[in-house]
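Hi R.,

Here's the chain you asked about this morning:
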Amino acid sequence: MNDHLLTLVIVDDEQDFARGLARMVQGRFPDLECLAVPSVDEALEIIKDRTVPVVLSDLRMPGKDGFDLVHSALQIAPQVSIILITAYGSIEKAVQALKNGAYDFVTKPVDHERLFSLIQKALERYHLITENDRLRQKARVCAEHSTMIGESEAVHKLQQALAMVAQNEYTVLVQGESGTGKELAARIIHDLSDRSRHKLVTVNCPAIPDHLLESELFGHTKGAFTGADQERQGLFKAADKGTILLDEIGDISLSIQTKLLRVLQEQEIRPVGSNRSQRVDVRIVASTNQDLGAKIQDGSFREDLYYRLNVLNIHLPPLRERKEDIPLLVHTFLHRVCQEMGIEHRTMSSEALSYLASKEWPGNVRELMNFVRRTVVFSPGQTIDLEQVRSVDQGGLDLGGGGTLKPYKEAKAKVVEDFTRAYVQDVLSRAGGNVSEAARLSGLERVSLQKIMRRLNIHAE
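And the predicted structure, written out as tokens:
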């Protein structure tokens, strides 16, 4: 199969017309190979054998016609855009062909500039579809593996840095805003290191009260304090020969900082209540979203500890600095969320992806992930479109109504209305605007569906 050269096929039983049209299109689009054939069967053979983004076809031909071409070509290559050429008196049939999957139509005599415009748009559609397919395939790999997701220069540099850092035993300080993936970075460092056969132990420092953190990290002896009715191994010991991640280390107290400094200097821990130290073989990765330099200045973080931690430094870029990664991130999260929910995989329209890529995302990758989760929950169709994304983004599904809490009935009614609108639009789209078919697909009476459409001001077309 020739994937290197894109081919445009012109199908018309009047071969002089087809060849003349091919020469004209070739002149405007020199990167396309334009082939003229007299029959649908010959066109289908080319579509099977080559990469064909666009087909121009006469609607009426002896034997198999434009309707047959639309049906068969889309089964072979769903991404192909079929532009039909029809006489003025056959416009109604051309419209029916659009409902069956044709991309657009032009009438004879052909307006060349309109035709060129349609071909350009069809090519752009093809490139969008193939790029989305590529991203979906890569997203499946990313969703199933511990990896930093992205194709931007910033992410490529980050991936290289993580790989280099993983090949040694020095302490690492991972810095970045909340939601940028600091824990994932630590996981990658561990997985790529010689310690990957052993545990990665993660300690969420702010989540553990200060008076318990020392015991959690270093363990304690029986009777060391009230409630210590048995000896306990600490997390450093649990991570022996592996890696320990001290997440948000900027929040630990000065007293714990002092004890941690001893671990870094001596590779020893002392359980609470014990007078003997224990050797540990642990690689330390620390993370923070805070400015440790400023904390050193105000006296809340030890300078000597900072330099012990900051032997190797990894900085995670915020999402606003790598917006080109958002489409791949969205595809990956869609795959992951659908697996979590046990539902068929969803896709997102190119317009919706562009909208998400234009946003700032102050909560970074974590905020985007949670947004995708909400969008999947409240989008009933297989394809999530721009309107559904905007509905979620603009608070259409915000039960609290922003700063004030809506009454239960009002909040519930709003969610139901948003769901109903999205569902009816999706089922009408699937039915090609045919209300009777939409009613059959949805299990509603035609009259009931029409009432809903009138109430929500939804038009079949």
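The longest helix spans residues 112-144.

Let me know if you need anything else.
M.
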